[in-house]
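Q: I'm building a small set of examples for a reading group on sequence design. Run inverse folding on the following structure and report the sequence directly after it, with nothing in between.
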């Protein structure tokens, strides 16, 4: 009986020690995961850099540029935009080209990584045609200009080479017109330790 009682006490103490040590192990695993978890810095340059470092070994199979582009895409977030830009809009059958897009990143702390461009046409009957396309893999630093960006938008439109004035210059409702704009911006916040 005495031996059983001693073994029972030792067994209970071992169980208590075992259960007390489990949270420490789990906590240290969570801590380690937090150190390497780039998603905690979503939307920042720090998160993108951590992602690139974490995936560097894949550059043996895929290019470093692809790793960078995918990490930036994973971490970029939509940012507010008050951006002035100019461009030329060319109308072709089933395609519109917006070229010579020039503008400036006016942010002090954000890098522009992609943007969506929208074009809308109104024909003589007032029917609206519109399309959106993306320009990806940009790297426009804060307070830096961008020049000569180009994008093609594809949609069903059968009136080639018709002259369209800008809708902002429209004098009456029966005039066909065109308008374009930057619909959205995506980017990374510059985060420095």
């Amino acid at each position: 009986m005495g031996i059983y009682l001693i073994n029972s006490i030792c067994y209970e103490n071992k169980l208590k020690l075992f259960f007390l040590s489990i949270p420490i192990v789990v906590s240290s695993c969570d801590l380690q995961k937090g150190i390497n978890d780039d998603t905690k810095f979503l939307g920042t340059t720090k998160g993108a850099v951590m992602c690139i470092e974490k995936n560097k070994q894949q550059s043996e199979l895929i290019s470093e540029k692809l790793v960078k582009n995918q990490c930036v895409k994973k971490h970029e977030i939509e940012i507010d935009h008050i951006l002035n830009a100019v461009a030329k809009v060319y109308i072709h059958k089933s395609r519109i080209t917006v070229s010579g897009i020039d503008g400036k990143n006016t942010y002090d702390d954000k890098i522009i990584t992609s943007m969506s461009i929208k074009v809308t046409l109104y024909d003589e009957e007032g029917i609206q045609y519109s399309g959106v396309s993306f320009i990806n893999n940009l790297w426009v630093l804060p307070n830096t200009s961008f020049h000569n960006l180009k994008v093609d938008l594809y949609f069903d439109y059968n009136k080639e080479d018709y002259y369209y004035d800008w809708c902002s210059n429209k004098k009456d409702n029966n005039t066909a017109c065109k308008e374009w704009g930057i619909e959205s911006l995506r980017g990374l916040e510059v985060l420095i330790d």
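The chain has a mean pLDDT of 79.
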